Amino acid sequence: MVIISAFLSFCVFGGSLILSSLKSGLNSLQARLGADIVAVPDEAAKNKDLEAILIQGKTGYFYMDRSNIDNIAKIEGVEAVSPQYFLATVSEGCCSMPVQVIGFEPETDFSVKPWIQKSYKNNIELDDVLVGANINTQVGDDLMFYGHNCKVAARLETTGTELDNAVYTNADTIKVLMAAAKEKGIELLAKNDPDTLISSVLIKVKEGHDPQKIAGEINVHYKNVSAVQTQSMISGIAKSLGGISEVVQILMWVVRILSLGIMIAAFAMITNERKQEFAVLRAIGATRGKLAGIILSESFITGLLGGVLGVALACLLILPFGGVIEQKTSLPYLLPNIGSAALAVLTAIATSAVAGPVAAVFSAVKISKIDTSLILRSN
Amino acid sequence: MILKAEGISKRFLRNTSTSNFSYAVNKTDIILSAGKLTAVIGKSGSGKSTFLSMLAGLLVPTEGKVFYDDKDIYALKDKDLSKLRNKEVGIIPQGQAYLPSLTVLENVMLPCRMYASKGEEEKTRQKALELLESLDIATLANVYPSELSGGECRRLSIARAFIRETGIILADEPTADLDEENTEIVLKALRSAADKNKTVLLVTHEKDALTYADDIYNMKSGTLSKQ
After folding, report:
1. CB contact under 8 A, B85 and A276
2. N or C: which end of chain B has fewer CB within 10 A?
3. Residue ranges covered by each domain of chain A
């Protein structure tokens, strides 16, 4: 019975943990973006990997003139704008590792800074870089990009997205890196001065204004610039998450119903085997209610033990495989915070502890009506 | 304590050639007095155990009443009747009746633990050990009942029935399947209880038991007659 309860609790907790981790990942992604609209060069908008580059830290780069920042800032309804710079490093000798380097302007940024400040509160100096949680390096280490050395100033907290594999720095540093890349022959930078280039403009819309309308205005009035609503980028991920969530929910219900059925049958069998014990108890003074109480309290303890065991097993078997789940589902995966995790633990244990007595009700009622004299005579 | 049954019957649903019902016990009266060992003998299926169960408060008669002193036990609520059974009746069931997950000592102490007051545990333990000693199974106090022989199991049941020092002892075939030595131990224990002013009813089909009895009744087809 403990094993069945443990299985139930394992499935309930494991399922909730995976679902809430995927939801946390999506929330983290939304919070991390912070912008309502992203303006990118036209040719970048046609790139099928745009979404992955912008929100999942996939390596890639594109550039447009930085004059677009001021133009977009003038549009009615735009509250704030901030440029970002993308530079993909390579796996050759000039770079320590192939990563996406993302540059931002600390003075105007409203997207990366709030997240970075959780891990690093100092100013980002020239040649300082902040590395995502999955980058295998230590604070104080040197990283070389296109032959230029940068110092790791901080490691950022996990987002559960591919952005954990990216490197962040300020605009001054990335311009130096872009210049270094230009020297190494990166084609896209060859004809331009890195000081005049940006990759994208993050746009925050004032309350009461329609992001769709502003995006439409940018697309109509500014040549070579495309505006994409971040909501539409995330909706693809949310849709996949919705599908997975539905399947997991259905499976969890199937497990609940099956476990309950098995527990009902198992309790009925166990109680039948123990009916002579209950007859003895009745003969020495146990009330019918007491007999039912014994069954219910035993089933509660069994469920509780199974619940704790199942949660412990789920922690052991599911927690270490977050990365695999993220990889296999291609969805952002971030373990929920302590509060949500504690709630999931309590829910799973409570489900299992309550399932025990629920499954045992039939047996408890049956045993409370036993014909003591018949059982004592037939033993 | 006086145990009195007035016109008790137990009717079961069973198709016979003459009726849809059959009577295991039919309109039976008996008065059992303190200090006496009363034996009810009869063949298997004659209704002896059904009769004992009704007297024990375990089986509601189809008709008639059972009194402990002047208390109509079947007029009581289950809670009160259960408590009364615990306080006033020691039952020695047929065969091997125990809780396998408890040791012999714990099985014996069980009736006291069921309605225990604070601070009684040690006293109960001492009493249980004394009873096991008197029944010659004190060395088995800490073993589990599954390791006991049939005679030892029956002695466990007797110790459990005696632990509460109830006024009534009801024994259902306590010597069935026992060898001569164990039969003698069991019957002597019941006789000793009667000598200590308990009301003892012994239901048996073994004639050897009769030498220990003060009163003997014969049960035949659900009808009781005094010998």
Report:
1. no
2. C
3. 2-26+237-378, 31-230
- In chain B, residues with a C-beta closer than 8 Å to the C-beta of A283 are 56, 58, 85, 91, 93, 97
**CA B164, CA B86: separation in Å to the nearest integer?**
8
pLDDT in tens, B57-108: 999 999 999 999 989 999 999 999 999 999 999 999 987 889 999 999 999 9
B88 neighbourhood in chain A, CB within 8 Å: none
Give tens-digit pLDDT for A348-367. 899 889 988 999 999 999 98
Neighbours of A149 (CB within 10 A): 10
- Contact (CB<8Å) A377/B172: yes
Integer Cα distance of A32 and A163 in angstroms: 9
* A373, two tokens: 């004299």
Q: Cβ A284–B100 below 8 Å, yes or no?
A: no
Interchain CB distance below 8 Å, A279 and B97:
yes
Task: Assess if CATH 3.40.50.300 describes domain B3-226.
Answer: yes
Question: So where are chain B's domains?
Answer: 3-226
Please give the Cα distance from A173 to A195 (Å, whole number). Answer: 11
Indicate the helix (H) or strand (E) that contains B200.
strand B199-204
